[in-house]
Specification:
Blueprint lengths: L5 E8 L6 E7 L14 E7 L4 H7 L3 H4 L22 H10 L4 E2 L5 H5 L3 E7 L7 H8 L4 E6 L15 E4 L2 H10 L3 E5 L11 E2 L12 H4 L9 E5 L23
Parallel strand pairs: 1-4, 3-5, 5-6, 6-7, 7-8, 8-10, 9-10
Antiparallel strand pairs: 1-2, 2-3
Length: 253
């Protein structure tokens, strides 16, 4: 039986490593249960040939997450990602396996979602998708949020049109600021404190959930703000400050 709450937006090779991935949007007819984001369309970028909870163990999650340091830490084997993959991502994957989702009709997409807000990468990195998919998805929306760890790649940084730089350090956030694109930085116990030009996420627990992501809308890539949030979710106990060479980005206009 077809589930009208979701559609397959993309099925094909990941731009990150060429392995097969899916992108499925949900929230078309039912309000998401994620109170932090608000009633946003959710997009799930997952490996097409492996359940997501198994993909993080055999390395196939790289096609969707691009080797994000929060996916699985090589030294410890632990995850600091806030997404619990055997919950929503696995549920979406199983529904796809059952044939529950029809493929998107891009000609009717604008009328279906005009005025809505979207979340790029409820799981997975939006840079894994063709830029044309991001363009079509976002065009009729009132707003969106998105984050990418692929901004160090010249080939993949076009995703910054829609996505914040996922900053693994203050230096990454400074590089994003110099390039003219927003950043999103997770703070742990050993992180450098918020800078005057950064703001604390108003949809965070520490800010009392003052606004939902839909109401805030500042994490939108170019023109976005520089946002910080305390490490959160079940993986937060594994979060450590990341030390590596900071990003080098050109000025993005």
């Amino acid at each position: 039986m077809i589930n009208p709450n979701g559609l397959v937006l993309w099925q094909g090779p990941s731009r990150i490593n060429g392995d097969p991935i899916l992108c499925i949007v949900t929230g078309l007819t039912q309000k998401t249960s994620n109170e932090k984001t608000g009633n946003m369309l959710q997009t799930w970028i997952i490996p097409a040939d492996t359940p997501p909870h198994k993909a993080i163990k055999n390395g196939k999650s790289r096609a969707a997450c691009g080797g994000c340091r929060h996916d699985t830490q090589k030294k410890t084997g632990k995850r600091s990602c806030y997404v619990v993959v055997h919950h929503a991502p696995l549920s979406v994957y199983r529904a796809f396996e059952r044939g529950s989702y029809a493929e998107v009709n891009w000609s009717t997409w604008p009328d279906l979602v005009r005025g809505r807000f979207g979340r790029l990468g409820s799981y997975g990195d939006p840079a894994a998708l063709p830029s044309s998919v991001l363009d079509r998805f976002c065009a009729p929306l009132e707003g969106w949020t998105g984050y990418t760890h692929q901004s160090g790649s010249v080939r993949l940084r076009d995703a910054l049109k829609y996505c914040q730089v996922s900053a693994d350090s203050l230096q990454d956030a400074e590089a994003a600021r110099a390039a003219g694109v927003g950043s999103f930085r997770v703070l742990g116990p050993d992180s450098e404190p918020r800078q005057p030009w950064e703001m604390h996420c108003p949809a965070s627990k520490e800010k009392g959930y003052q606004k939902t992501c839909q109401e805030c809308g500042l994490c939108r890539g170019r023109g976005g703000s520089h946002v910080v949030i305390n490490a959160h979710g079940t993986g937060s106990v594994n979060f450590t400050e990341y030390k590596r060479r900071p990003l080098t980005l050109p000025i993005l206009t």
